[in-house]
């Protein structure tokens, strides 16, 4: 096989349909839009329009509340920290947000980092995060370590 013999598979490339280019094209005159009416014209926006009937999003009651001031934390669990320490990615003496992001445990910091108590930790370590659950603090202190909660 030579470079000048290379070609696409049959049917791999398809020409775009040239609409409104005469009767012989098959899509001339109305360009496949049918006759008259809103849908045949440009700028059609009728998604969710129910023909004048009260739309479903107005018939149904509003529910719930989303707090605009709620903090969204990046989550780190104890078992992932222990795995990172065992793999040599983290230094147990001083674990902070920067070291967690360098180790790849936190990608987006959002409003801060929260430590959660899933799994177990056996290494004595000092962890500085923006928030921590009670179970996580208890588990770290049980292992002989300390959790510092810093302001976000």
Strand content: 5-15%
Given as residue ranges, the uncertain stretches (5+ residues, pLDDT < 50) are none
CATH architectural type of the largest domain:
Ribosomal Protein L15, Chain: K, domain 2
Arrangement of strands in the largest sheet = 1-2-4
- Give me the strand/helix succession: HEHHEEEHE
Tell me about this structure.
The chain is of the alpha/beta class. It folds into two domains: 49 residues, no CATH class; 76 residues, Ribosomal Protein L15, Chain: K, domain 2, CATH 3.100.10. 19% of the residues lie in helices and 12% in strands. The strands form two sheets. The protein has a three-stranded parallel sheet with strand order 1-2-4. The protein has a two-stranded parallel sheet with strand order 3-5. The longest helix has 10 residues. The mean pLDDT is 92.
What's the quick description here?
It contains 4 helices and 5 strands; from the N terminus they run αβααβββαβ. With 152 residues, it is α/β, with parallel strands linked by helices. It folds into 2 domains: 49 residues, no CATH class; 76 residues, Ribosomal Protein L15, Chain: K, domain 2, CATH 3.100.10.
């Amino acid at each position: 096989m030579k470079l000048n013999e290379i070609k696409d598979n049959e049917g791999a490339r398809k020409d775009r349909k040239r609409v409104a280019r005469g009767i012989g094209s098959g899509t001339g005159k109305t360009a496949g839009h049918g006759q008259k009416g809103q849908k045949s014209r440009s700028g059609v926006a009728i998604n969710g329009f129910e023909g004048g009937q009260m739309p479903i999003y107005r018939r149904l009651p509003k529910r719930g509340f989303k707090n605009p001031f709620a903090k969204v934390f990046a989550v780190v669990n104890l078992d992932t920290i222990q795995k990172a320490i065992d793999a040599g990615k983290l230094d147990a003496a001083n674990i902070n947000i920067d070291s967690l992001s360098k180790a790849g445990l936190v990608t987006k910091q959002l409003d801060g980092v929260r430590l959660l108590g899933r799994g177990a930790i056996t290494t004595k370590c000092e962890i500085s995060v923006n928030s921590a659950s009670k179970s996580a603090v208890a588990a770290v202190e049980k292992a002989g370590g300390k959790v510092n909660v810093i302001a976000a």
